Amino acid sequence: MQKVDGLIGAFKKNASEQVRVAVTEFRGEIYLDVRVFSKFGRDNGYGPTKKGIRIKLDQAPKLRALIDQARTYGLR
To answer: Which residue ranges form the domains of the chain, and what is each CATH number?
Structure first.
């Protein structure tokens, strides 16, 4: 199995936080990590917070289906 570790993308949540989506590997399993990062200190660098989820990558389609279902509420 090839090494997997990387940021897929990010978007701004508010003035001091962003949401990052990454694929990571831990103990031979591949995970999807969706986490809030917050600005810390004067250098305006971002660091991870406890806010977020990590699921096995094979569960991602289930999460996507639920997100798609949730989006329909905004279209009513």
So the answer is: 6-75 (2.30.31.10)
